[in-house]
Amino acid sequence: MSLITSGSSSCWPTSLKRWLIASNLSSIGRWGPELGGTFAKVQNPPGPWEVPRALPQTYMRRSLSLLALPLLLAACRPEDVEHLDNTKELAREAENFQPKLIKPAQLLHGARWAADSLIHTADRGWRAQLNERLAAGGVAAAHPYCQPEKLPAVVKLARELEAQPKRELITPARFITEDDSVQTTRSGQDQFLVQEPLVLLPTDATCLRCHGQVGPDVQPADARLLAATYPGKALTGYQAGQLIGRWTVPMTRKGVAEFYTQKTRKVMKRRSLW
Question: Does pTM surpass 0.90?
């Protein structure tokens, strides 16, 4: 909140400043002429047991300054005070910058939250890129780009989370069980690990084109190409509903804490001007 002057009414900051400056100069002047105070012209300073003649006047002047302070404050009328319109926003921002204690359960939740965000970013960018390559040149043009963990957006987010996401192929093919559900663990004092299954869905035509059954889903020529390019890996022969792989996302406590703090910040909704 700031104060302004209006007309002949004088608000307290300027007047009070002048009063206090005059009072301070008067009080420090008795210490010697080098300070330029009221006693600068005293040629013969009094002895150690004598009180300077001007000293009572000095304290009287300071007392009058303090007595005049309420009058100066009262001189500011309500219309002279400029109020801020965004006090709630400022209070909310101040609260966001206060240090907060994140509990262990909240850190586990933050790790799962961060991994979901990372995997969702990877899946969205990977599908857009892979569908474009499949439309342009089929499996031969698309399979080198089946590396979602290397997408620029994923690399950037992984750096912020201090994470190292990777995928692993699960063989032989089998259907998913309860043991394959998402697991979030704290592998160390400063380390978290999130594992999330990759399931081949019936509606996932993109994945079925490379990893489905040879014949109905995968062209024989494409199956031979994948077998020659990735020897020792059974990339085809999966059925819809089977577990094809797993995301493994290790990340540090610092990255999880920063992600959780940013996601739980209070953000004021923008108000319409009309």
Answer: no
